[in-house]
Every structure is written in C-alpha cells, then in structure tokens.
Design brief:
four-stranded mixed sheet, 11 helices, single chain, six-stranded parallel sheet, alpha/beta, 315 residues
Length: 315
C-alpha cells in the first residue's frame, strides 16, 4: 500500500488533490496542518519524514498571493518558499522517498517570453519585477528536483500551473489573486447596491486560467505516468511540465464575466495607476496534451463553481 503525503493539503491545490486522491480510492494519505508541522523548520520536517513511512509526496505547500502581496512582502515570498521546498525535498530524499511532485508557477518564465510560453523559455530572460522573488523560489524548486534526480536517481517531477482558481481560494481584499478578488468585490458591491466597482490596471493584459480540480487531475496524471514515458517527454535539466487550459482572456473580459456570473449591474471603472503586470501570459501545454491529458472545466462553469464555493465560505 502506497503512503502519500500532501504538503499543503489545506491550500487550494492541496485540498483539490486530497479530494481527487480520495475519489480514486487512495486512502493512505498523510496530512499535517501548520499547527502540526512547520514546513519552514528543517528539524520539524526531518522528524516528520523520519516518523512516517512516506512513499510519495505532492509538494503543494507555498506562500502565494497577488501583485499587491508580492510587491509588499518580497522577502517573505522568497524566504518561505525556498525553505518549504528545500526542507521537504531534502527530507524526502534522506528518508528514501523515490517519487515526489513539485508544484511551481507560470511566473517562472521571463517577462518578455515568446507566447505561448514553452518549457524551454525557462532562464532565457528577465523576470517580471512584481513577482521576481516568488518566481526565483519556484525556479529553485524545479532545479532542486532535477539535481536530486541527477545525483541520486530520484524520480522528482515538477508541474507549472497557469493561474488557478476555485474552491479553497484566498479572498483577501489585497492579498488575493484576480478571480477571487473580483468575486469578493462584486459580491459585496451587489449586496450593498454599490453603483460602481473599481478594478486594477487597464484591463488590457491577457491571462490564462485553469480550474483547480483540473490542476489536481493533471498533477495526479503526471505523477502516475510511467518513469519511461516521463523521461522520454522531458529532459534532465528541463524536466518541468506546463499545465494550462490553452486559452487566455483579457482582464477586462474576465471582469465582465465575473460581474455577470454574480449578477452585478453597476459600473466598472479602471484604475490605471495600479500595475498591470505582464501584458500576456499564456503557456504552451502541448507537452502535457501530447502525454494524453486535457482540462475538462470551461471558464463559464469554473466561475459558477468558484462563486458557489465562495458563498459557502461566508454562510
């Protein structure tokens, strides 16, 4: 029987992984929340791995946030993410864990990378300044996995998701990503009969989004690929796999879709003094598609599910 540890099981991706693994009748799943295990503490992580018979790890734990949070707390973002990755990956190796899946982010790619962004765009240019510390930490996670594979023959894989949304998202007014921020803002505006809502930036940048349950599905799919099939589709020092929907949408269109789903009928204003970030971020997920996986949840359905999940959090 395989014992699976999900690091970050209370987060959006981690909780989706937990749901899907249980739905697949994989019940030998280990979890530990922040009160039980501080993943930034090396000694605590080492002890956890030493006392639990772990066979596989899904490393979904991370400090995450939107443009505002990345700009305000760069030291927190680089330090905490580096510590989590280093501690978990090294502890897994020291305790004989052969299989691990690391979840990164599409922000690893250069600011001016050719669109759509293929895996080989990594380390070919300057990163987007607003989230550079977070991106560097995620790049380090990829290289940690590759280094343990090269030196010790481990099977540590990396997946790079596009922008995710859905149940378990963070709806903080300043620290959240764009979709949960819009859902929360329009919900409040509708309930308070607010005549206008202000959105950040120009609305012109385009972004790709993926419903979180699709991300969990892709992660499990990649983890369960045979070793031979995985290494045939990747390279030793370019081993990560993009996970995206293959479609992007302007922030303006997205904002109007969210407002429509919630039923907000007021005016939408744009604050161009706020940063836009990169003008376009679309990933090339053909490597994954060629391996046989495709997303199932449309943007329209995903927003409906996400809003329903949001309402459950405020009841």
């Amino acid at each position: 029987m395989v014992n699976i540890f999900i690091a970050g099981h209370n987060g959006m991706v981690g909780s989706a992984l937990l749901r899907q693994l249980k739905a697949n009748h994989l019940n030998n799943i280990l979890t530990a929340d922040k009160t039980q295990l501080d993943l930034t503490n090396q000694r605590s992580v080492d002890q956890y791995f030493e006392t639990n018979n772990i066979d596989e790890v899904y490393l979904a734990a991370a400090k995450v946030g939107g443009i505002y949070a990345n700009n305000e707390y760069p030291a927190n973002f680089i330090y905490e993410n580096l510590m989590i990755e280093t501690n978990v990956i090294n502890a897994a190796h020291k305790n004989g864990v052969q299989k691990l899946l690391f979840l990164g982010s599409s922000c690893i790619y250069p600011k001016n990378a050719k669109q759509p962004m293929a895996e080989n765009a990594l380390l070919t240019g300057v990163l987007e300044p607003t989230n550079e510390p977070y991106a560097i930490a995620k790049i380090a996670g990829i290289k940690l996995c590759e280094s343990y594979n090269r030196q010790y023959g481990r099977d540590y894989r990396s997946v790079m998701p596009t922008n995710l949304y859905g149940p378990g998202d963070n709806y903080h007014s300043k620290n959240s990503h764009v979709i949960p921020a819009l859902i929360s803002r329009f919900h409040d505006a509708k309930n308070n009969n607010t005549p206008a809502v202000t959105a950040w930036g120009s609305g012109l940048p385009k972004r790709e989004f993926l419903y979180v349950d699709d991300m969990a599905s892709a992660s499990i799919y990649i983890m369960q690929l045979s070793y031979e099939k995985y290494i045939k589709s990747t390279e030793k020092m370019l081993s990560h796999i993009n996970v995206g929907s293959g479609l992007d949408i302007s922030i303006k269109q997205l904002t109007e879709l969210v407002a429509g789903e919630i039923g907000y009928l007021g005016k939408i204003n744009w604050d161009s003094s706020k940063p836009d970030g990169a003008l376009r971020k679309l990933m090339d997920s053909s490597r994954l598609y060629n391996l046989g996986w495709r997303p199932k949840v449309s943007m329209q359905d995903g927003l409906k599910f996400a809003y329903s999940a949001f309402k459950d959090t405020i009841i």
